[in-house]
Amino acid sequence: MMEHAWHNYKLYAWGKNELRPLTQRGHIGSIFGASDLGATIIDGLDTLYIMGLETEYKEGRDWIERKFTLDNVSAELSVFETNIRFIGGLLTMYAFTGDAMYKEKAQQVADKLLPAFQTPTGIPHSLINPKTGMSKNYGWASGSSSILSEFGTLHLEFSYLSDITGNPLYRERVQTIRQILKEIEKPKGLYPNFLNPKTGKWGQLHMSLGALGDSFYEYLLKAWLQSGQADEEARQMFDDAMLAIISHMVRTSRNGLTYVSDLKFERLEHKMDHLACFAGGIFALAANTRQSENTEKFMEIGKGITNTCHESYIRSSTRLGPEAFRFGEAAEARALKSSEKYYILRPETVESYFVLWRLTHDQKYRDWGWDVVLALEKHCRTTHGYSGIKNVYQEVPQKDDVQQSFFLAETLKYLYLLFSDDSLLPLDEWVFNTEAHPLPIKGANVYYRPALSVSGDATNAS
């Protein structure tokens, strides 16, 4: 599947961000716009490397060395997406290979993002123009706020970048964000999705473990893991946040399905995003890495959420899960609105299958993963790559003609690892960023590669 996705991308969209497999051209409507940033190359490279696809890997590495730069990109890029896909992908390849080119490129990208942090609070804006350094927030985000899942999902990459370059600046930027979030008043212990970077105050009280919130929580747990479990502040913030979420947002449906509802102005929506399906793996990982009074509860909820996400898949005609699904009188683990019925090759459910397989070795997780492989082959494979679909409840769904870069970075990687030996990227040596780029765990992994000393040019990077 990876070879099919890659070879068609190479044939029809090389250097573009993503492939449109039906029309056999580059996808310029992607989050990275029309610039030729090779998002699929940088995002998919570590998957090629893990799979031993050496020829393809070398093509990708060569393109990055010769072509990849943000120097002349005058477009508004998402700080968050650029971090998790580009910086994350490059940092993983540096850890895997020790090839200094990857470290340099990662640092160049990070330096292009730094102007976005120049706000009164240090909470970065969502969008940056790499050429001009101008940054701003999305017009639709509550009172021009920054978004929790975006500014809260920089910690792993920026911390690791400081360690391998010897430049403390990157870690300082994300520590500032951490301190604000630690000290701010949290309604019922919960984190709203919007924070104003000028005032440091919350925007509208909308909480979610799905879109707009998701990976912030993931990075609290993973920052603690990445630090060799030394970053106690991160683990404490994670545990506190999860207990508040369990109390106010985790619910059980009439037929016993565990789900995490969105919460808007103190009203539960009884809706869960596909994006929140990562939480099954996160709760289980939290339970597995620390024994406490919460361990059993966390594991039970992790298994429950993963099961619910599986139900959202098998209750559709295609056996692929919808973008969001609801619980109530009219539905259980099913999408009701047409705007929620699509599937864009997302990885979150198979991510939780992978984590739970590694932690429990319960065969059902591999069986469920294989079911997804068969569904992808049946409904998403095209002659020239893979495509998302517009309605998971139709027997023959219409395709959306986009092969997302995260399909190669995440979905195929997690499926491959689900069927691999535990010795391939063991969970006590690697932590996966939210784009499935594995980063080494400090003190537990010989590939951590810290800088030997603070480099002399550290001062002028800011």
Our measurement of the CA-to-CA distance between the termini, rounded to an integer number of angstroms, reads 42 Å
Radius of gyration: 21 Å
**Which oligomerization state do the chains in this entry correspond to?**
single chain
Could you report the average pLDDT, rounded to the nearest whole number? 96
Level of helix content? 40-55%
Number of helices: 15
Strand segment count: 19
Strand composition percent: 5-15%
Major beta sheet, specifics?
3 strands, antiparallel
Order of strands across the main sheet: 3-4-5
Structural class: mainly alpha
Low-confidence parts, pLDDT < 50 over ≥5 residues? 454-462
Shape: globular
Provide an overview of this structure.
It holds the Pfam family Glyco_hydro_47. It is an enzyme of class 3 (hydrolase). This protein is mainly α and about 450 residues long. The strands form eight sheets. Strands 3-4-5 form a three-stranded antiparallel β-sheet. Strands 8-11-12 form a three-stranded antiparallel β-sheet, with no helix packed on it. The chain is globular and about 55 Å long. The chain is about 45% helix and about 10% strand. The longest helix has 20 residues, at about 295-315.
